[in-house]
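Work Package 3 (structural annotation) set out to generate three-dimensional models for the target panel prioritized at the project kickoff. During this period the team completed the workflow that converts sequence records into discrete structure tokens, so that structures can be stored uniformly alongside our sequence database. As a representative example, we reproduce one entry of 275 residues exactly as it appears in the project archive.
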Amino acid sequence: MITGMIGKIAMFAAVVFCWMTGRAQDDRTTPAFGGGERLVYTVSYRAAMWPNTDMGTVVLTVDEDEADGVPALRISARATVKGMFSWFYKLDDRYHSWLRSSDMRPVKAEAELLEGDYRFSSAFVYDWDEGVSYNAFRAHRNPEATEVAVELAGEAMDGISLFYTLRMHDIAAYEPGQSKTLALLLKDTVRFIKYTYHGREVREVRGLGRVNTLKFSCQLVNDVADSFEEGSEFFVWISDDGNKVPVFLESPLRVGSVRARLVEYGGLMYDSGAL
């Protein structure tokens, strides 16, 4: 049970990347991040016999780069198991996405997943003129990659790109209880996530103290992993400032819950704010 639960840290991280603030994807406003930003999260498991057990780390970084010959921001994410849990379960998942600086649309995305004996790699290439993403992916036990073209319904994006572009949205006009839908691009399909704004809340976060936040809940319209119950809610608290940084997240599992809390941050665009 424990090794199976640890193996879901990466999937939880991927969902974290898309549970962000929220307007529709075509409603970008003020930039909330830039090159040099670094966010570090500790992922923990909580149940009756496992109170707040820290099990993994997720690190997100932003760097100035190029993609297809144009200026871009390279977003990198890495999820790993920490401490004694790494002795009996290997987890090292890496994600990279490139956002075109001119309009912050993703140009391409890559992933390399290592989870126990499982290996998986993927590459997405976006064609916004055609409204299609050309995706290639394979498990490393299979010599041939699968290649598919996926329609970008609802301006769907990979999880990391979605996470960062949504941080630029203005949520001042949101009313508590208001819901919208996000489109998440996966390897061969698009899944939809319904999210609801619950209002402002002062959240106690270990290591950060009391933080002014905006609270959202998210619900999978289509199940994307057997670690989550379809229809169950996920909760995220983001900083109530220009940076719009997730500071705490919680997801119910069939037994207990997975949580992620912000433990380190640097290179934020705005010096003053909730953090």
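The chain has a mean pLDDT of 80.
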